[in-house]
């Protein structure tokens, strides 16, 4: 106990010696710590911007719907023998999958078409998604004005349309859109609903879209390209319940589809299945690399700051050689001298680090409010920043401190 | 008889300077008993400073032995020497060597830091020593606000604060005027009468006369070691 107490008081003494020494050369201390301050500012901001990118990418993926697989009728391009079968995906496939898979919350077969919408001289070009009500379930989206596409709409091939917020504003401005007529590629449709806003992700406006019953798209809007049969799909979304093992589900889906198309074992599949989990993993890999590169670049400034610390500590040791000699004569052991200078460097760096951290928090807040870009600085990052600063002090202060501790007391005392 | 405080046996210290071997201390054997007041004299280059460094555990002999309070300093590690300097020896220097921008109280407390004492203990002991040396009114003064004599008294308080066996003073009056020098030597005499061993290194015969015994160095050897015949009393 007494030993620990004396150890703590020993360190406290070192801190107070350090503060006195730093105050003595206030201007020099400030300039030196500026390097560490800027370094910590840069590194913390890099971490924050990197995490912000991660967060916004994850949010974007979440707007797709959280637990979902997307099937495209195109063969995966990588590896394997090229398949003879051209990629196909039909509503029958969709029904087969729905029947055979467990843990499904919904399926959303989809046809896509680029359409021209016209209303009283105003027009908008957007992509129309031919969907079933399942789309709403899988993608977790609904109308917030009017209604969504219904089963009856799909059954009857109704000429109804649900507009995304952006499209609605382009065509109708502030006016009530629901109930109005709009020409879709010159065919009159009735607006039955407006979608809730989904914001934008990856710089793409999620509200620049229009939903039409899939049967209506198939019958009335030219979808032409690469459809081979009367019930072909462009894309199939399969939504799963929370907690479903997506990799296993993906394997099952591949199995089912390969069986349906009798794909030989060593041919590559004529379709591609991607899950939201894979998107997440891929994007977190990309954002991780992005963050790593940012931090690495920012670290260079911290390194420069550290070299500044070493430089000034060497000067400090030289200037205080006589003090070192005196302390040795009064009973300081080598490690006492070493610790004194280590603590001085660490204190200098931690002060710089703390100021740098506060500046970083300020700049991040500015980012968030002005650029609407999240740059979160958590408690973990803050503690890391301070500890890292202390580490810089100990690393770069190490050599000067050891040098001080190796001085001969006689020669140190004799120095002017 | 009790073991002497300090015993030098065939002590040698040689340096190589510019390819030439310098015998700074060249075969010194002597002993100093507890409670003595000794002046070590000699011109510069006589070896007295080198000898003092070895007494003070700041340096180790090239050959021979320096036995301090029963232990041979030649076999000690640098940490063990630091502990001896801290516990058994109190240094007083010509230039006082006080820490600037540090109060008298904190200056005196420095050795206690290395003795591992708590802040409360350090302050109490430092205050007591400064009071003993008549500086009770000057505890919070930095060296710049103290006269030379006051600074040297702070330095003496610092040397005494760990209750050492001996005071080792290197030209303690070299930077002081005559009157102040007399005061300082008076303090040493008073302390010596209180039982502490005092060793003063000086080149001034007047100062040496305050001691009981004078040891004269020349060319690394002791050429005279005798009691001071006409001892001066400061008080």
Model description:
The complex is a heterodimer of chains A (416) and B (235). Chain A has 416 residues and is an alpha+beta fold. Chain A contains 13 helices and twelve strands. In chain A, a hairpin with a 2-residue loop joins strand 2 and strand 3 (122-131). The longest helix of chain A is centred in the last third of the chain and has 44 residues, at 276-319. Chain A is elongated, with a radius of gyration of 33 Å. Chain A starts with a helix and ends with a helix. The model of chain A has no long low-confidence stretch (mean pLDDT 85). Chain B has 235 residues and is an alpha/beta fold. In chain B, 33% of the residues lie in helices and 28% in strands. Chain B is globular and about 50 Å long. The mean pLDDT of chain B is 92. Chain B has helices at residues 48-55, 78-88, 104-114, 119-132, 148-160, 178-193, 205-208, and strands spanning 6-17, 20-32, 37-41, 63-68, 71-72, 89-92, 166-170, 197-202, 213-218, 221-227. Chain A binds chain B through residues 5-6, 9-10, 12-13, 20, 23-24, 322-323, 326-336, 409-410, 413, and chain B through 53, 56, 58-59, 78-79, 82-83, 85-87, 91, 93, 97, 99-102, 110-111, 113-119, 158, 162.
């Amino acid at each position: 106990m007494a030993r620990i107490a004396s150890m703590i008081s020993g360190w406290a003494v070192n801190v107070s010696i350090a503060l006195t020494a730093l105050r003595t050369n206030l201007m020099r201390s400030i300039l030196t710590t500026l390097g560490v301050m800027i370094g910590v500012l840069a590194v913390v901001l890099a971490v924050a911007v990197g995490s912000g990118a991660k967060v916004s990418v994850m949010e974007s993926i979440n707007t797709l719907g959280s637990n979902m697989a997307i099937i495209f009728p195109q063969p995966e391009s990588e590896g394997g023998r090229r398949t003879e079968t051209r990629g196909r995906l039909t509503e029958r496939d969709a029904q087969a999958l729905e029947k055979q898979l467990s843990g499904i919350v919904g399926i959303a077969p989809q046809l896509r078409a680029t359409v021209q919408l016209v209303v009283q001289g105003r027009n908008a070009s957007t992509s129309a998604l031919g969907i079933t009500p399942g789309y709403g379930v899988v993608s977790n989206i609904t109308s917030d004005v009017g209604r969504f596409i219904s089963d009856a709409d799909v059954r009857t091939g109704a000429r109804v349309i649900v507009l995304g917020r952006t499209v609605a504003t382009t065509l109708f401005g502030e006016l009530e859109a629901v109930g109005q007529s709009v020409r879709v590629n010159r065919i009159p449709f009735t607006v039955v609903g407006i979608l809730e806003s989904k914001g934008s992700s990856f710089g793409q406006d999620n509200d620049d879209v229009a939903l039409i019953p899939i049967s209506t798209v198939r019958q009335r809007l030219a979808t032409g390209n690469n459809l081979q049969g009367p019930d072909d799909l462009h894309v199939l979304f399969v939504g799963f319940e929370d907690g479903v093992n997506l990799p296993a589900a993906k394997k099952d889906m591949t199995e089912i589809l390969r069986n349906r198309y009798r794909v030989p074992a060593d041919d590559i599949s004529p379709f591609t299945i991607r899950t939201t989990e894979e998107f997440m993993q891929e994007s977190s890999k990309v954002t991780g690399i992005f963050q790593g590169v940012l931090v690495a670049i920012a670290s260079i400034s911290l390194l420069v700051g550290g070299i500044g610390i070493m430089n000034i500590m060497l000067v400090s040791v030289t200037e205080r050689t006589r003090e070192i000699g005196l302390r040795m004569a009064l009973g300081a052991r080598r490690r006492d001298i070493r610790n004194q200078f280590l603590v001085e460097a660490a204190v200098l760096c931690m002060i710089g680090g703390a100021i740098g951290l506060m500046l970083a928090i300020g700049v991040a807040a500015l980012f968030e409010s002005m650029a609407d870009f999240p740059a979160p600085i958590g408690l973990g990052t803050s503690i890391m920043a301070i500890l890292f600063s202390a580490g810089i002090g100990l690393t770069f202060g190490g050599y000067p401190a050891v040098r001080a501790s190796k001085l001969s007391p006689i020669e140190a005392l004799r120095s002017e | 008889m009790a073991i002497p405080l300090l015993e030098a046996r065939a002590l040698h210290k040689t340096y190589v300077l510019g390819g030439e071997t310098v015998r700074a201390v060249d075969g010194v054997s002597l002993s100093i008993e507890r409670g003595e007041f000794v002046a070590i004299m000699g011109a510069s280059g006589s070896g007295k400073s080198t000898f003092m460094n070895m007494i003070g555990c700041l340096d180790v002999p090239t050959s021979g032995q320096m036995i301090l309070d029963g232990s041979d300093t030649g076999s000690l590690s640098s940490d063990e020497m630091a502990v001896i300097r801290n516990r058994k020896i109190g240094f007083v220097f010509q230039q006082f060597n006080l820490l600037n921008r540090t109060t008298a109280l904190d200056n005196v407390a420095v050795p206690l830091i290395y003795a591992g004492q708590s802040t409360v203990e350090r302050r109490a002991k430092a205050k007591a020593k400064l009071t003993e040396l008549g500086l009770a009114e000057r505890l919070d003064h930095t060296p710049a606000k103290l006269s030379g004599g006051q600074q040297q008294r702070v330095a003496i308080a610092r040397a005494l604060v760990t209750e050492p066996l001996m005071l080792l003073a290197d030209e303690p009056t070299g930077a002081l005027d005559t009157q102040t020098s007399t005061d300082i030597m008076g303090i040493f005499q008073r302390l010596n009468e209180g039982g502490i061993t005092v060793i003063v290194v000086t080149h001034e015969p007047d100062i040496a006369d305050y001691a009981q015994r004078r040891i004269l160095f020349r060319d690394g050897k002791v050429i005279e070691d005798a009691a001071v015949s006409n001892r001066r009393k400061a008080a």
